Amino acid sequence: MSFLIRQLLKMPRQLVNREELGKLITKTSGAISMITESHYSVRSISSNNTYVITTTKSEWTCSCPDYARHNSRCKHVYAVEFYRSLK
Ligand SMILES: [Zn+2]
Is 66 or 46 the better-scoring residue by pLDDT? Predict the structure, then answer.
């Protein structure tokens, strides 16, 4: 199997993991605080860090290293989305 195909096969699993981790954060009491409608803070479940999640009209962004590295939805963004969908 080529390197590229292996990478492609890995991708959905990574996305699922972030989504699952996001759900886990949503279920963690006190992990998510709403600051404004477009501004949330999410406490990390693996460290003492707190990340800031903000939205423009269409996109959520996060201040964590994972978001900075991949420039795509991280577990915190998923967490905020789940949190909002529960309301
Ligand atoms: Zn994040």
Answer: 66
